[in-house]
Design brief:
Blueprint (H helix, E strand, L loop, with lengths): L1 H31 L1 E7 L1 H4 L8 E7 L6 H12 L4 E5 L5 H10 L1 E5 L2 H35 L1
Parallel strand pairs: 2-3
Antiparallel strand pairs: 1-2, 1-4
Length: 146
């Protein structure tokens, strides 16, 4: 019986620690004007190794004076200095698609904004690759149907 109680106590404390970290991240992100923080790459899809870095993308309402404040906030959140941070406003459509495809939301001021951004990324991806698919299709038709 004591073992079961100890496990329940441990689980409750772990959950409280996670909730506290999430609250701390949300408050700190909001304070510096960041409205979206996403984990992507190997840490998000489960293919990470012990030495894998944390790939994190963010979006801010206005340009940040410095990424160092955000870096320290995220370093405390993930418990590692091995971070790679990208500003979602500075990346190309195909990179945005790759991030949005398998990301995990660490913080979103408004989840609707996240879903809208994800839909936008998927539409832009289609727009970017459509000419390539048409080119391949035309070549295959020419090669095999002529």
């Amino acid at each position: 019986m004591a073992f079961v109680f100890a496990m329940l106590w441990y689980d409750e404390n772990v959950i409280k620690d996670i909730e506290n970290k999430e609250i701390t991240l949300a408050r700190a992100a909001k304070k510096i004007g960041v409205d979206l923080v996403l984990l992507f790459g190997s840490q998000a899809d489960g293919s990470n190794r012990r030495d894998s870095d944390f790939d994190i993308a963010y979006r801010s309402k206005k340009p940040l004076e410095s990424d160092s404040d955000l870096f320290h906030i995220l370093m405390d959140y993930v418990g590692s200095e091995n971070l790679h941070i990208l500003n979602l406003r500075d990346i190309k459509p195909l990179t945005l698609y790759e991030i949005m495809r398998n990301c995990k939301v660490l913080y979103a001021e408004d989840m609707l904004d996240f879903y809208n951004l994800r839909a936008y990324a998927f539409r832009r991806f289609e727009d970017e690759v459509k000419p390539l698919y048409e080119l391949i299709s035309n070549r295959l038709k020419k090669q095999y149907l002529s």
